[in-house]
Specification:
The chain is α+β, with helices and mostly antiparallel strands. The protein has one domain: 2-Layer Sandwich (Alpha-Beta Plaits), CATH 3.30.70. It is built from three helices and six strands. The radius of gyration is 16 Å and the shape is globular. It starts with 19 loop residues before the first strand and ends in a 17-residue tail after the last helix.
């Protein structure tokens, strides 16, 4: 029996090493609530990061040291996924790393640190979602989405009120 061919989530024939802005969504394995929880409030919701969420945050904030060609413009850590808005810029290097290189390194670094405390845990889905930012309006829409994601948690595609966490 032949294995099904997995469709690539990347845009066909697009060079992900090109300079530009990208909106990335990285999900936890089986959409588990690993990174914390959202506390609902009358004046807006807030995120309370778990120990794993704090490790993930530290790794996001340390990525620009390893990947100076990627400016992290904005990000949000949700209970079972992360959105990161990045800008790939020209730093005059011959090293031509891609968005996938950036995400794979982040996932690897965070997983190594997480597994020091939780050795058997599966943290990530195998892939990630991306959206290539096309213009200033598109950038604003995705920036605002990140800013409002915590307040829209119960309407989020990744929200599951019946999950045990």
């Amino acid at each position: 029996m032949e294995r099904p061919v997995r469709k690539s989530p990347r845009l066909k024939d697009y060079d992900y090493s090109l300079f530009g802005a990208y909106f990335l969504t990285i999900c936890t394995h089986k959409f588990q609530y690993l990174f914390g929880e959202i506390e609902f409030g009358a004046r807006g919701n807030s995120t309370h990061l778990s120990d794993i969420g704090i490790i993930v945050q530290k790794n996001i904030e340390g990525l620009q040291e390893r990947f100076p060609e990627f400016d992290i413009l904005n990000y949000v850590i949700m209970p079972n996924h992360i959105h990161i808005l990045v800008l790939k810029v020209d730093i005059g290097s011959s090293n031509c790393r891609t968005v996938s290189d950036f995400v794979c390194s982040f996932k690897s670094l965070a997983t190594k640190e997480i597994r020091l405390e939780y050795p058997a845990i599966q943290v990530w889905m195998n892939s990630f979602h991306d959206h290539i930012i096309r213009n200033d309006r598109d950038l604003t829409v995705h920036w605002d989405y990140i800013e409002q994601n915590v307040n829209r948690w119960q309407k989020d595609d990744y929200y599951h009120s019946n999950l045990s966490h």
